[in-house]
Amino acid sequence: FKPAGQIENTGDLLINKSEIDALRRFGEIIIDDNNTPVWFIDAISDPQVDKKLSATSGKSLRMSILMQLLSGKNGKQIYYVIPPGHRSTKGYKSALRSLSGGIKNFILKSFGCRIIRMGFSIGPFDNLNGQIDAMMSGSYHYFGLRDQKSLALAQKLNFKNPQYFPDLAWCYAPYPATAATMRADKDYVVLSFRSNEYGTSHQEDYLVPIVSKIKALLESGAKGSKVILSYQVQYDRDACIYIQQQLAGEFETELIDHKMLLPEAEGLYRNAKFVLSNRLHVLLLAFQTNALSIPLIKPEDNKKIVGIYADNGLGSMILDSEQDIALLTSSLGEILDNSTKYQQLFRDASQSNTGIIGQKLDSIFNN
């Protein structure tokens, strides 16, 4: 298993842990720990049963797999599992990296390795990178995309045999609620926002129109409640600080000024009146704790959220930050009035997707 390269995002921690937990029943897992911090490896693995590549080989993951294949001593089917997440590339250098990685994967495939990637989304690509990724998709034994928009793009670009595979957050099992992680107070809402469409740089101008809508929604749906600013992605810290500054004097606020990992985030979301965010895995993790998890997004900039919510019957929960305030506050009121219905819709979607994930994994690894 190749872990995520982006360790700054607790959402990647979430879906990497969920994937390994789901895969464990199918065989022995060796996790590539060569270029990933120990804390991340420990958080996604079970040291009682999972192995680290550094303890079994002094070579890179691909080279270790190739040596096993060439030796013929193993006698077992080897799978190379690439992490879930999102893939979007542009530029000549990215195309060269994709071409190089794809050729290496084709070599592994030619010797019998089955390469798997599932529970991820794609796009946008520039023309060159779209063509390269389409060509390299032939190296995969299974290529599973987590929303219908990504699947449609893969089909349009002639990817080889793309399949639907739900986001792995759907089958995530939260940590048990404990006194150490649960907040004593309950009269609060949680805000967690990024300040850009893509990338890592803070763009204050991106947030200016969103903050005015946040204020109106808080005044309408959370009057008198504390507003807690938190982040699961280190790059979102500046966005949280900016929003807190804009709310100062009008609302009681609290800033959790460090990147939250899974147990702490779950403890925070579990008691919230609702969670408002434009981060997909803030929303899905909050929902897994039975919190009311509401996207406030620009739909054109947040296609992952639109796709996954719409695919699972939750599209009416999406608040479009470009709509006028009266329509937004009315929509929020409807969601809050029907919170039990929406929480049940999520539970039903989670149960259904967990079942689909199990069935698809059986078809991949038991055939």
Describe the structure.
With 367 residues, the chain is of the alpha/beta class. It folds into 2 domains: 10-173 and 353-365, Rossmann fold, CATH 3.40.50; 188-347, Rossmann fold (3-Layer(aba) Sandwich). Helices cover 46% and strands 15% of the residues. It is built from 14 helices and 13 strands. The strands form 3 sheets. A 6-stranded parallel sheet has the order 10-9-8-11-12-13. Strand 6, helix 7 and strand 7 (163-164) form a beta-alpha-beta unit. The protein is globular, with a radius of gyration of 21 Å.
Distance between the termini: 20 Å
Number of helices: 14
What would CATH call the architecture of the largest domain?
Answer: 3-Layer(aba) Sandwich
* Count of individual beta strands: 13
Give, in order, the helices and strands.
HEHEHHEEHEHEHEEHEHEHEHEHEHH
Briefly characterize the structure.
This protein is an alpha/beta fold. 46% of the residues lie in helices and 15% in strands. It is globular.
For the structure shown, list the relevant keywords:
single chain; 367 residues; alpha/beta; Rossmann fold; 5-stranded parallel β-sheet
Topology:
Elements: H1 10-23, E1 30-31, H2 38-44, E2 51-52, H3 53-56, H4 61-71, E3 79-82, E4 85-87, H5 92-110, E5 114-122, H6 127-136, E6 142-145, H7 148-156, E7 163-164, E8 188-192, H8 204-221, E9 226-231, H9 237-247, E10 253-259, H10 262-270, E11 275-277, H11 280-288, E12 293-297, H12 303-311, E13 319-320, H13 325-337, H14 339-365
Parallel strand pairs: 1-2, 3-5, 4-5, 5-6, 6-7, 8-9, 8-11, 9-10, 11-12, 12-13
